[in-house]
Each structure stands twice: as C-alpha cells, then as structure tokens.
Amino acid sequence: MKSIAGTLAAPFPYFGGKANACELVWQLLGTPDNYVEPFSGSAAMLLGRPDGGGVETINDFDGFVANFWRAISKDPNAVAFHADWPVSEVDLFARHAWLVRQTDALKDALHDPEYFDAKIAGWWCWGACNWIGSGWCSGNGPWVWDGEKIVDRRKLPHLGDAGRGINRKLPHLSAGQGINRKLPHLSAGRGEYITEWFNLLYARLRDVRVTCGDWERVCKDSITTRHGLTGIFFDPPYDKGAMDYGAGGMGQGISSKVREWCAENGDNKQLRIVICGHTGEHDDLLRLGWKLHKWTARKGYALTDEAKENSDSETVWASPHCLHKRNDQGRLFEP
Questions:
Q1: Dihedral angle at the C-alpha atoms of 79, 85, 88, 89, nearest 10 degrees?
Q2: Which of 45, 46, 50, 195 sits a CA distance of 20 to 30 A from 37?
Q3: Do 264 and 202 belong together in one domain?
Q4: pLDDT tens-digit series, residues 59-98
C-alpha cells in the first residue's frame, strides 16, 4: 500500500508515475491553500502530499482514470468487490472488450460531478494490474470495437517475443503488480486486503474534487487563485523521449501548450507551478526566472539503455514563486 516515497500508492501500475519526485515537488510547492493536478494519472503527487488540506482538485482526460478515483472517493467497498478477481486471460480479454465499449458513454456521464461507476472502476483496475505494457483500454491494440463487434486487426501472428502471437496479450503473472502484488501475511484474504487498501484511499480522497476533461478546464481562476495561494503540478504527456507515455501515445503537442500556459502565468504571486519533462523540454522557461531540478524515475518493466536514458533525463521546472532550495548563504541552489 506504500510507494517508494513511503506514501499511500495507487493500486495499479501507471507509466510515467511521479512517486519518486514527491519529496522534491512538495519542497517546491510548500503548503498552498489550493492544489490542482490537471494530469492526475496515478495521483502519485496528491497521495504523496505530506500534509493534505485546503481545496484539492485532480483531473484526467482519460475517463477510466477519472472514474476510478471518483468511485474510490464515493464507494470504495463496491470498487474493491469488482476489483477482487483472480488472474484469467479469457476474462482479461472479455473485460477489456467490454470496457472499451463503455469509453464514450463513461466520459459523457462523468460531466456530472456526482457520477461514478464502481464496476467499471474495479474491472479497469483489475485489468491494469494484469495487462503487460501500455495500451490497456486505449482502444489502439489489435482488438478494437467497431461499434458493433470486436474486430481482430492482426495480420500475422508475432512469433518473436513472449506474450504475443497465439497467446495474444497475456496477463501479467509476476509478483509486484498492483492489487495482486502482495497478500497479507496473516489470516486475511485477498478481498480483505483490497478492501482495506481502497478504504485508505477513500479516506484520503473523500474531499478531493475529481474531474474528467481537458487540462485547461481546471487551470482557470475559478479553480485556482480564487481559492488562495495555489500549487499546480503539471505532468503532461511528454513531447520528447522515446517512452510510450499515456494511453495511445497522446503527446500531440500538449506539453508545448502547457509550457505556453506556464510562461504566461509563472509571474503570478498566487501561483506556484511545477511542470515535468525530459531534459531540455521546457528550458525556454528559464529565461523567465524558472529553475530546473533533476530527479531519477523508476525504470519500469524495460531494463534497457533506452529506459535508463529516459529515467535519468527526468526534470522538473519550478516557477519563480516556488520555494526553491537554498544553501547556507541563502542563495538559490539548483541541483
């Protein structure tokens, strides 16, 4: 239930999670009255906050992500019930097909701030923990919903790598994956363990506002400075780097647009802003008084030179009014 940083962790793996950066980011943001996370994903930064409180808003464009966090904040026991299921390839395929068919309707329904679907949340979390690699519920894999049926778009079976070809997308069978990664040592079973975990998340998120949509919707004055000193943590899909970040590789210039917003708003004394990216990605902000800080991410499944390069290039840029580290002489210190 704990992340590397020692904070409450999401019960599903998530590419691009920022748990290792929590200590650095919260040193920069301090204790704002209001906190906004426009690209929440695994909500690692929110869950890693050392002292919650005030107004908190998390948002994600992915309806499955937003629905999970909203469902957890409303009915964790129902979500736990649907997430408690053994590893099964046939169920993974069937549930994936069913979930993909819910995508559009779910996103529309989430515009109601009180709406959530515990079954979708539980099944999505269960599948994310058993799916190998990225692409879970993205609709971009070899099996897609054409509006009437599941269509198999494979041309020839892939015979070169394990987990492909006639085995399709095999479930993840190794230890260390989400809700299946650890079982309690004593008499409690998996169901009790999942329920306890989800209720801990519920206690943390019960007063957090969860929205689903474009990132700019939660960066307006009505969501930010109207509530006082505001910390904003941006973790947009990267424009640079080779890692597949976000369902469907949804970079599409979003990172550049976020950087433009940061440049326009960085001098606001009511805002403390941190934006993530690979080395050099947001260096244009430095001429506006922003400071950069390096950190090292987890390398994920792939222990390759490419994965190491991406991990070692992780950087955050902090706006001028963040609480930048200082040395004993009181001068700015840039790690």
A1: 0
A2: 195
A3: no
A4: 999 999 999 999 999 999 999 999 999 888 889 989 999 9
Q: Which positions of the chain have pLDDT values less than 70?
A: 1-7, 133-134, 139-188, 240-251, 298-312, 325-335
| Dist CA 142 CA 158 (whole Å) | 12
What's the domain range around 94?
A: 63-206
Q: What is the total count of domains within the chain? A: 2
Place of tokens 């004055």: 221
User: 298-316: b or e for each residue (b if 16 or more CB lie within 10 Å)?
Assistant: ebbeeeeeebeebbebbbb
Dihedral (Cα; 184, 187, 192, 194), 10-degree rounding = 10
| CA-based nearest residue to 83, from 183, 31, 12 | 12
DSSP state of 174: S
Does 293 lie in the same domain as 192?
A: no
Specify the pLDDT at position 44: 94
> CA 280, CA 277: separation in Å to the nearest integer?
8
**21 and 136 housed in the same domain:** no
